[in-house]
Design a protein that fits this description.
2 domains; about 20% strand; Alpha-Beta Plaits; Arc Repressor Mutant, subunit A; four-stranded antiparallel sheet; alpha+beta; about 150 residues
């Protein structure tokens, strides 16, 4: 099913991307629609999958995870079972907030939120050093969040 988004749909998505907790009335005011028309549009955007889910973005500092790291991971083998084994391990880790399988020089990019360098080191030993399929990984520590 193909559905072409118009300018109003894009405005709704942009406003919701910034704050999905807005009431329908405020959202409607911001995008220039009546509340009933806005509600129908949001329902349609959910139905077609343009809005996949509504989530809470948690500040890592509030849960005492003050150190954010972006980690790129290279693999020896790239078969589905090898990837599944690695990604299954990631699911068990609270510190892994995001994971992407990517094309290019590396196979995966991870966003980690850890308490401190000691937790990062333990996590790196468990996820990267102990996994024979991980050929290399590079860690970039986040200095500040810009967007």
């Amino acid at each position: 099913m193909s559905f072409k988004l118009d300018q109003i749909d894009h405005r709704i998505l942009k406003v919701l991307e910034e704050n999905a907790d807005l009431s329908n009335k405020i959202l409607a005011d911001r995008v220039g629609l009546s509340p009933s028309a806005c509600l129908r549009r949001v329902a349609q955007l959910k139905k077609i999958g343009a809005i996949q889910r509504i989530v809470a973005v948690i500040d890592p500092d509030c849960i005492e995870r003050h150190l954010t790291a972006v980690v790129t991971v290279k693999f020896e083998r790239h078969g589905p079972q090898h990837r599944k084994n690695f990604f299954d391990q990631l699911e068990k880790e609270n510190a892994v907030s995001q994971c992407y399988m990517v094309a290019g020089e590396v196979g995966s990019v991870l966003i980690l939120n850890v308490i401190d360098m000691e937790e990062y080191t333990e996590l790196a030993d468990r996820l990267f050093h102990a996994d024979e399929n991980v050929s290399a990984f590079t860690t970039h520590l986040v200095m500040s969040k810009l967007k």
